[in-house]
Amino acid sequence: KPRLYSGMQPSADSLQIGNYIGALLNWKSLQETHEAYFSIVDLHALTVAQDPAKLRENTRRTAAQYIASGIDPSASTLYVQSHVAAHAQLAWVLNTITGFGEASRMTQFKDKSAKQGSDGTTVGLFAYPILMAADILLYDTVVVPVGEDQRQHVELTRDIAARFNSRFGDTFVIPEADIVKETAKIYDLQNPTSKMSKSAESHAGVIWLLDAPAVTAKKIMRAVTDADGGVVFDRENKPGVSNLLTIYSVLAERSVQSIEDEYAGRGYGDLKKGLAEVVTGTFGPIRSRVLELLDDPAELDRLLALNADRAAGVANATLARAFDRVGLLPRR
Ligand code: ATP
Ligand code: MG
């Protein structure tokens, strides 16, 4: 089976629905046909300030959400990034063949560093995409299922891999991003032209997987729409309504057209009520399962340890190959 790699940051105590719709749903179907590695990328989360106790807890919570959303930890390798030392080790080597200008062009860095200010912006945030390249390349990954916001980072990974291969001889598989066009970008409900994010400054427009149904419903009812009033998909002129229709369509497994038809001539209030039912209906069972899994943290930790061993077996072999190619003297 071809190898697949992807991950999410434990940067909040819950995932948001963009993570679920843009990535997890695709992971779930691809894990059937691929040898899949799903990481909780805690080293990436450190690139912006985290509370240590919360980071630890959010790492377990993220693992529980993967499993509750349908990732099978016996078929796929679900592990914590920092448990496999090879990630940080390969990242260092890749840092040394990545151009400063090349890394400076990453739009996620520009966006996130603009929010942090110059003193709040760490070298780690700058090097984030190179650590991500290491994640992917360690597993001889063929497919990387991600949201649209990660396309540029996968492109960079391909460039770095190709450069390494041409300089030091064939070492890495060149991976490809798998981005599902319709669901590649879910927008903030209060700001429907920017991406929904775990680390958004305001949580008013972010739907969390683990929110109570009443909280979710309230956020949906308050979603920004427009003055036009028609339930019609039009990304350009009606970004708010189009975003609601996308979420509805994916979670209810219905075409956008059939939803437009159902709500034709009715107000946005009705659409939002219907959507709130669909969203809370989807995440209710996931939320209960997460709470169940978190009730037994020792079992979760045991599972993560087993999976980390499996991941390390693959990663260490690739790391040794890369170290050898660049001329690091093996320790005998
Ligand atoms: P942070 O704000 O901390 O960066 P995030 O919500 O962007 O958090 P990540 O952990 O960075 O989440 O990304 C996890 C995965 O979810 C990636 O594959 C990313 O492309 C995808 N993703 C994140 N936000 C969205 C979104 N709004 N729509 C679709 N996919 C998304
Ligand atoms: Mg992100």
Could you describe the 3D structure shown?
The protein is mainly alpha-helical. Helix content is 56%, strand content 9%. It is built from 13 helices and seven strands. The strands form three sheets. It has a three-stranded parallel β-sheet with strand order 1-2-3. Strands 4-5 form a two-stranded parallel ribbon. The protein has a two-stranded antiparallel sheet with strand order 6-7. Helix 4 (86-95) runs parallel beside helix 13 (297-326) and helix 10 crosses helix 12 (268-294). The radius of gyration is 21 Å and the shape is globular. The model has no long low-confidence stretch (mean pLDDT 97). Adenosine-5'-triphosphate (ATP) binds at residues 8-9, 11, 16, 18-19, 22-23, 146-147, 149-150, 184-186, 195-199.
Keyword list:
single chain; 332 residues; mainly alpha; three-stranded parallel beta sheet; two-stranded parallel sheet; 13 helices; 9% strand; binds magnesium ion
Q: Briefly note the structural class of the backbone.
A: mainly alpha
Rg for CA atoms: 21 Å
Heteromolecules bound: adenosine-5'-triphosphate, magnesium ion
Helical coverage, percent range: 55-70%
> Which sheet architecture does the biggest sheet show?
3 strands, parallel
Shape descriptor = globular
Tell me the strand percentage band: 5-15%
Element-level helix/strand string: EHEHHEHHHHEHEEEHHHHH
Mean pLDDT: 97
The count of β-strands is: 7
Q: Please tally the helical runs, counting DSSP H or I stretches of 4 or more residues.
A: 13
Which residues form runs of ≥5 with pLDDT under 50? none
Measured between the Cα atoms of the first and last residue, the distance is 34 Å
Spatial sequence of strands, sheet with the most strands: 1-2-3
